[in-house]
Design brief:
Elements (H helix, E strand, L loop, with lengths): L10 H10 L5 H5 L1 H11 L2 H35 L3 H24 L14 H42 L2
Helix pairs in contact: 4-5, 4-6, 5-6
Amino acid sequence: MSESATPPRSLFERAVYAVVTRGWDAQKIANYGKTLRERDKAVSAEITHTFTSIDTKAAGVLTHVSMMIAGLGLLAPLVASSDFEVGIVVVEIGVYLLIAIGCLRCLAVFHTHEFVGVGDQAQDMIRRELIIRTELYSLCIRSAIIFTIVVFLLLPVLYFWTGK
């Protein structure tokens, strides 16, 4: 029985399958495994290791950023009593959200069908993606470190400035 003829087990799975295969013809679905193998052949073990390392590190930064956003949200009522102070906390959360977007981009995966029919351009695509992820991760981690120091210094100032 082919992959496309295998019925999903639940309504949710059928809905997800319909969304992710929207616009695909039967041939594209039937060749999905083959295209995965082509993609994996194009990406060397060293590059795969580097992508995995970036993924792991970006996930760690994303966890830190998520906790900082949650912490700022919880601390806001304690340190912000005026619109200006609330604005500072909102900007801090906004900066962390931008860092989170960068980390999520570092976690992006190659689309399975990106490597179909690209031939020699595959290595250029991989090199470009490696540069983007490596440099973006570097920017995200530096930004997270610097901005966490800024927040660490600003929170006591905001707390004592409000007189609470």
